[in-house]
Amino acid sequence: xxxxxxxxxxxxxxxxxxxxxxxxxxxxxxxxxxxxxxxxxxxxxxxxxxxxxxxxxxxxxxxxxxxxxxxxxxxxxxxxxxxxxxxxxxxxxxxxxxxxxxxxxxxxxxxxxxxxxxxxxxxxxxxxxxxxxxxxxxxxxxxxxxxxxxxxxxxxxxxxxxxxxxxxxxxxxxxxxxxxxxxxxxxxxxxxxxxxxxxxxxxxxxxxxxxxxxxxxxxxxxxxxxxxxxxxxxxxxxxxxxxxxxxxxxxxxxxxxxxxxxxxxxxxxxxxxxxxxxxxxxxxxxxxxxxxxxxxxxxxxxxxxxxxxxxxxxxxxxxxxxxxxxxxxxxxxxxxxxxxxxxxxxxxxxxxxxxxxxxxxxxxxxxxxxxxxxxxxxxxxxxxxxxxxxxxxxxxxxxxxxxxxxxxxxxxxxxxxxxxxxxxxxxxxxxxxxxxxxxxxxxxxxxxxxxxxxxxxxxxxxxxxxxxxxxxxxxxxxxxxxxxxxxxxxxxxxxxxxxxxxxxxxxxxxxxxxxxxxxxxxxxxxxxxxxxxxxxxxxxxxxxxxxxxxxxxxxxxxxxxxxxxxxxxxxxxxxxxxxxxxxxxxxxxxxxxxxxxxxxxxxxxxxxxxxxxxxxxxxxxxxxxxxxxxxxxxxxxxxxxxxxxxxxxxxxxxxxxxxxxxxxxxxxxxxxxxxxxxxxxxxxxxxxxxxxxxxxxxxxxxxxxxxxxxxxxxxxxxxxxxxxxxxxxxxxxxxxxxxxxxxxxxxxxx
Length: 750
Known about the structure:
seven-stranded mixed beta sheet; five-stranded antiparallel beta sheet; single chain; alpha/beta
């Protein structure tokens, strides 16, 4: 049942917003306003333009505050309404000034009609275990199943649904899950029908579909499983479920050897998509996916699926979502640490380029695992796999708080960026504070974090489509309060980096000599105090709402696109360089391009993609000239591991998203560092530092002189010039090209 606000909704007055605009200046980074305008500003059809920042923040804040479950009652007290109104005002000031932001998903969806139709849309990412499961009382249940009947298709239906709603999905193909999938019982003859009146007719026939009228005239449907797809997201999901489940006798009661799927009702390519926006792909990507998945299953008749097979099915779904519309797909496949076939599956270049690119792959370990050298060798070659320590996630919050048996015992995996350990069907739920910006704008950090905590807590009261998710959310109320610009804030506040040195000590278990980090104790004390503030805010708000406190509270997300808004370092990561050129790609029809050109930004055609222009933005990192400043290009791999361990120990009771960059000469240190931090780090990934070794690199280090020269060429404010040129009007469905929310390209931006 949909939640509806029974009391009059909490709103922010126009006068209040005008007053804030006159007293607070948003802390836009060099790329901030442009990134906002093309990523989070929604189209306003009645005004034929995209939102302005105050309108976005008003929409987001009102959408969130009105999730407070007390507003579902008709007799809400004036005290509650007044308190929530004041809270909404404070949240508006916090977010408007860019001292903090909710997740990119909330910036895009909160306060829209889509939020009310689909509460899932407020959460960035999800996790599902790939094993037979029941659909339960969910918005999608195939008509041949009872809600309590387990089906092989269920985790793939969950994955497909969430990816098409714009979320990322982590999925587990560890041996204990894959072993629960029965052997494939039968080969299925898949027939896909298309009506000759469909605008997709010719393209569909080329992919193997057949003429609907001709086929039906020559065949009888009585022995086939037939499904006519409605023109909905659910129709795509159910088509795949029908085909997968027909391969298994337990979910094929009619003993059908043929599945017939009718694509005639699916809207054609370039038709508009309501809700998220964008344009349709037509049925072609779905047709290609269904034939590919059916081939994999047919080849396994009489055999059990492997972790590689199960990952391939997930990757084919991810590939289809990318091709199917303008949204990106984010997947993380979690396999076994001793599963060599899984670890090496991307070495098959044909399959890598066809579909295996669609997930980042990690392996699940525990603290007893010590054979890191084969994993390190694979990482040195291609940056995979990442590492996820499920044992630590189950029994620890912050490392500083020690072992707590079963504190999070249902954890089975993680979201695609690795910052939140999740149970089956559970989403991540994020909000982040930029502490350096917040303090500069006069916020007491404890207050900023308390506002973020309450924002995230309310998201857990959204309406969720899947029963498996509702159960996990109601049980855990998990939130992830993050901080970004960490390196900037630490240098500003404590005048050194957090790792001040190393002591050589013996690992008590292995006898190996390891470099134990020394941390700035003032930073330890301050970060611990902020963690306690989050826990206290959650406890107080939970008491107000009469619900359980959140099982875990804090994290460090990769940030990426959101960090660009405020111009701070991304999550825990070091700036890419002290000075750099950041290149952003635009559709060549984007009306922002003339404004950027008029302001002096260098623009040239993209050498990789047609109809795309590449714009150069000169960027200076905060503290670039500080003698203690370090960048991803020169900070040691050891210091990055130690910094992640600091945050896992004193800040994050969930996990810390970190992509450690390493130089070629540091590759031989990877295995030792993974082993050293096996009792501390819940998840990590590594990538070689790329520098600027290819043309039009997204980030290119430059020196201070080059930076100053490029800045001197910029003579105007893009937002002002854009409004003058376009009379405050804009174009619909214009997006930045190839923007991602994390270093590994995993998480979707909205």
